[in-house]
Amino acid sequence: MKTLGIILGALHCAAALTTPKYGSSCRNITFTVQASATNLIVDKPLDSDLSSTDKVNAYLQALPVTVINGLPGKRGGIFKLAALYCIPQFPASHFQGRFSPTGDVPLQILLHGSTYTKEYWSRGAWGDSNSSYSWSWAAGAAGYATLAIDKIGSGLSSHPDPILDVQLPLHIETIHALITQIKAGRTKIAKPKTVILVGHASGSNLAASLAETYPKDVDALVLTAYTSGSSINQSLSLAQQYAPAAISDPQRFGNLSYGYLLSGSVAARTAALYYEGHYDPTIALNDYASRGVHALGERFDLGPKTQPDYKGKVLVVTGANDQFVCGAAQAQQCSLVPDAIMNVNATFPSSTGFEYYMPQTGRSINWHYNSLITFDVTFQKLDYLIGRSSAGWRVAMEGSS
Question: pTM value?
C-alpha cells in the first residue's frame, strides 16, 4: 500500500494528458457570516516591534514563549467571505447517466494556504492563461462544483485584527457558519448532498481541525501539502524575509495593520513552494508578484493534531519534494515524505477510508508541469472514496482538442 500513490503517478506519467475541453462556469460571490471563537489572547507587539524584517524574525523566533503566556479569550464578529463558485459545464450526455448536472453535484469547499488567496485554485492571482493549472477547472471536468474561499484576513474577505482574530479557532467557526448556511439552503448556491473540504498547507490544517470540531459538516477531506507533525519549518519561514505588508507594498496593502506580513524574497518563496526543474519559472515570478498576506495570528497554531472524532474519508496529496517536510535535505534526496504522509492515517483513527498520493512536485502542487496528472489521480481517488463514478473527467478528456 505504501507505494501505491507513487506507482499510480508513474503510470499516469506515461499518458499524454491535455487540458479538459469542458470544465467549469464560475462567478464571484460574497457571503456574510457571524462567528465567535475562543482564541489566544496575547500581548500585541507595537508597530515599532514589527517595522523591519529583522524585528519580525525576532518576534517569530520568540513566538513559542508568546503562545505559552497567552490566555484564552472570546473573539468574534460579522465577517465577509469572498468566494469563487464554479459548477460543471458540459453536455448532460457526458455524464452517461451516472450522475446528473441538475441532481446532486458534490461540492468541494477550497481553503487556500497562507500567503495565497482563493485564486490559488483557479488561474492564480495574476490570471494565468493556462487552465491546465486550475484545480477548479479540472474539478468541474470531473463533475464537482467548487467554492474557493478567501479566508478571513486574506484576499477580498474581511481583515480583522491579524493577531487576536485571525487564528485557527475563528477560522474554524467562520467556515462552519458558512457550511451551515449552505447545507440549510440559505445561500445563492446549490444545496449539495455531499460536502468535501479541500485544503492547501495551512488550509489543510484548517480543514482537518474543522472536521474534528464539527464532524457532521463534511463527508470527505482532501488535504494537500499536509503531513503528520508540525507543518512549521522555522528556517524556511525566516528565509521568507517577512515584513509588514503595509510597508512592503503600500499600494496594495497600505490600509492593513502591521500584523499582516508580506514575504520579501522571491528566491526563498520559490525554493519553499516549487520543485526545481518541474515548473515554469514565469509562474513562480508571477506567483511572487501577486502573493498575498500572512497574518501573525495564524502562527499560534503549531500544526496538525490527532482527529479521533472524524469518521469521514481522508485523501492526502502532498508533493514528494515538499521542502517544508524535507527540511534541509535537497529535493532530489528527500525521503521523508512517504512516512510523513502515511503517518497521517494514524491521526484519523475513526476515518472510514484513507488514500494518499505523492506527485513529483513541491508544496504548491497545482503549479507544476504535471498538474493535470495530479488532478486526474486525485479526483479518481476521491471518486473511489466517496463511492462515486465520474464519467465527466474521462469523457471531457477524450473530447479535448
Answer: 0.90
